[in-house]
Amino acid sequence: MPSVLVIDDDEQVRCMIRDTLEAAGYRVEEARNGAEGLEQYRASPADVVLMDILMPDQDGLESILAFRQQFPSARIIAMTGGSDLIGIMNFLDVAKMLGASRTLQKPFERETLLAAVAAEAEV
After folding, report:
1. Could you tell me if 104 and 112 are in contact, meaning their C-beta atoms sit under 8 angstroms apart?
2. Domain-by-domain residue ranges, the chain?
3. Which letter does DSSP use for residue 8 in this model?
């Protein structure tokens, strides 16, 4: 059974993602921010990491960099509901440049989430 680490500061989002993924047969772990996610991944590496971008303490962009340095082969899907721009690029474009293999714009459909996680779990 593939495992997924969901890193998001919003408990409702984590719960929705967890319920969706568990119903599809995935084992799910959760973290509230990037630093907690790194510690959890270090203790028990997941097949796929779902990473929110806009979080307190250690945001998703910082966390993607840290994952790439410490765990270069981690499969990361970045997600955000924020559409703020950094210069002329949006957060999800920057996340891809930093090493996320896929991105999801919140809100996303259940099928979109499952397709993205399945594609990364099969790599």
Report:
1. yes
2. 3-121
3. -
